[in-house]
Design a protein that fits this description.
With about 200 residues, the chain is mainly α. The protein is about 65% helix and about 0% strand.
């Protein structure tokens, strides 16, 4: 196979333009509005990297002096620029549409929106920490409830045993003529008999 002399024809070269690299490509699901710069910028960089065009926005592929290579650079720069314009709001797009290179557009957006997103990033991180603390407290409360339920279940078993003993005692009383009274029933009978036979103070 003959070696490729034109970088724009080498499929491994960032100058190579695939048939799927259309001007209408949108890099992100939600357009950049300013408030979402951090997440949107990250998504753009990933998408451009997958397309092997990151060098046109990070400065690693500068504008060449060679005439033949310059034409290829201009085509790729125009394609990447159109992707960025498709991925920002209309107001932002209007303000950057006349910028010469994709690199300049990226730097412009970073200067305008990256610093303004600092307080928002801080707020998101603080909300994240608060969410973690709330989750930990709920987990602790859940474990405490487990202990309480286990304790109540143990009490329930004890009450069940006492209730069963009372039922058994009641049955012995009802069948007293056929069965001997239990020790507990006999003690209660002696107590009642002693109170009945005890003379009152008025009869002396």
């Amino acid at each position: 196979m003959a070696p490729v002399t034109n970088v724009s024809e080498d499929s491994m070269s960032p100058y190579y333009i695939h048939h799927s690299d259309s001007l209408g490509l949108v890099l992100v699901s939600q357009p950049l509005t300013g408030d979402n710069f951090t997440s949107c910028h990250c998504d753009m960089i990933i998408a451009i990297s997958v397309k092997n065009k990151l060098g046109f926005v990070d400065g690693s592929i500068p504008r060449p002096d060679d005439f033949m290579l310059l034409n290829s650079w201009k085509r790729n720069n125009g394609i990447v620029t159109s992707w960025i314009l498709n991925s920002v709001s209309k107001d932002i797009s209007t303000s950057i549409i006349f910028t010469e290179s994709a690199l300049d557009i990226r730097q412009d957006l970073k200067e305008r929106f990256q610093q303004s997103n600092g307080p928002r990033i801080f707020q998101l991180r603080r909300n994240h920490r608060q969410g973690l603390m709330t989750g930990v407290k709920k987990l602790e409360s859940h474990h405490q409830m487990d202990y309480v339920l286990a304790f109540l279940m143990g009490l329930n078993e004890s009450f069940s045993q006492v209730f069963a003993m009372i039922i058994q005692e009641e049955r012995h009383r009802q069948l007293g003529s056929q069965y001997l009274p239990t020790e507990s029933a006999h003690g209660m009978a002696l107590t009642v008999k002693g109170e009945v036979t005890k003379p009152s103070s008025g009869s002396m």
